[in-house]
Amino acid sequence: MQKINRNVVLALLTATSLVFLLFQLYYYRFYLAQKHVVRKFLGLISSQNIPVYLIDPLVLGLISKDIEQIRSSSDGSSPECKYFCAPRDFTTFALLDKMWKHEMDLFRTAEKMGFQWLKILNKDPRLEGMDDLSGTEIPLHYIFKLATHAIHLVVFYERSGHYLWHGPLRLKQHMDRKFVPFRKLHFGRYPGAYEKPELLLVSIDDLKVQIPKNPSSFLEEISHSRFLECRYREARAFFQLYPDDASLDAVEFRKKAKSLLHLAAMTLNNLGVKFWLSSGTCLGWYRQCSIIPYSKDVDLGIFIRDYKADIIPAFQKAGLPLKHKFGKVEDSLELSFQGEGDIKLDIFFFYEEHDHIWNGGTQAKSGKKFKYLFPKFTLCWTEFVELKVHVPCETLQYVEANYGPDWRVPVKTWDWKSSPSNVQDNGIWPVDEWDDVIQIY
């Protein structure tokens, strides 16, 4: 009986040792191997003098919690692998396109180091407005795979609005869809737009790597980075039906409107107030990738939750006097500022209800109130007149709500009280409130 017990104990110890050994092998293969792949990748890009920086949301999320300690640490050495050994299938880096041009040397070296690679190309959207160049393809994403781990290298391009853009990840028919778990990649489902980050060289897990200096801000950008390209082909088709106005007055108006929009964007961005292209300005972007020359104003939208009392003095300080103020913060607020000449900036504040969003209007001479209803929408980035700016992601629904199914047809005679498809009467301001809700300067 005693001999049997010793055999049982010996068998249990052997089984336990085997399980522990298997766990160690599993840990090395799937976790420590990740750091090994990252180290080899960093060695690869260093050998080619390619400046990349870490944009992996999971790793940056861990780093952001320890950023002060990491900044103050001289070498970042740690007895444990904390950042590059968390379980994941891939690690994501970014590359600024203009910093590197010799990809064939990279691929040859990568293959010698044991990497498999995949390059994803797509059309350059910056050339879509040019008939002879619209089919030009550019590299958007690279995947480098070694053993069970992959490196996703996202290519960023600097756009004319002085921001960084990356394209979507779209596999072509001949590409291996099992190469990596593409659906899990953090970048590539949609195009994205980002501010140019200031970079910081740090040492983490005994590896030297560049990261955004403020990882928390970059992580916040990721969640709101979706980018919509202007519809260049549709714009060309529009101008074939309705030739563009190239008169001196139209050219001068567009110049002034562009300047006004840039000034408004700078003012609101400095205040930290999120805004988007609205009304005729949004229609011009969506329909013809341009400012509508007969609109005579620039229209912006702001959610009322983002209203700040500093908005009016900030615009006045920027040289844009208040032209009128209608409504109040609680109801139908609307601001208008006078730009250069007869062009004005209209800012409409939007209110959220349970199933729709609306902004208000006020007729000064009668005190009548109007309400303009929109389906709920989210915000995406776009580029308009060399400016990175928000538009509703659900642009078609937004435009159709305001201009109806015939929004493609130019309408030069427009009555804001009756022409919009989504306008409703909304009562009348009490006479004793007029001094507060109807202010004209």
Your description of this structure?
The protein is of the alpha+beta class and about 450 residues long. The chain is about 30% helix and about 25% strand. The chain contains 11 helices and 20 strands. The protein has helices at about 1-45, 55-65, 65-70, 105-110, 215-220, 230-240, 250-270, 280-290, 310-315, 395-405, 435; strands spanning about 50-55, 90-95, 115-125, 135-145, 150-160, 165, 190-195, 200-205, 205-210, 275, 295-305, 320-330, 330-340, 345-350, 355-360, 370-375, 380-385, 390, 425-430, 440. The strands form 4 sheets. Strands 10, 11, 12, 13, 14, 15, 16, 19 and 20 form a 9-stranded mixed sheet that branches. Strands 1, 2, 3, 4, 5, 6 and 7 form a 7-stranded mixed sheet that branches. Helix 2 (about 55-65) runs antiparallel to helix 5 and helix 8 packs across helix 10. The radius of gyration is 28 Å and the shape is elongated. The chain starts with a helix and ends with a strand. The model is unreliable at about 20-30 (pLDDT under 50).
Features:
single chain; 441 residues; alpha+beta; nine-stranded mixed β-sheet; seven-stranded mixed β-sheet; elongated
The geometry reads as: elongated
Oligomer kind: single chain
Number of E strands: 20
Tell me the span between the first and last alpha carbons. Answer: 104 Å
Q: How much strand?
A: 25-35%
Give the overall pLDDT as a whole number: 90
Computed structural class: alpha+beta
Q: What's the story with the biggest beta sheet?
A: 9 strands, mixed
What is the percent of helical residues?
25-40%
Instruction: Give the count of helical stretches.
Output: 11
Unreliable runs, pLDDT <50, ≥5 residues?
22-31
What value does the Rg take, in angstroms?
Answer: 28 Å
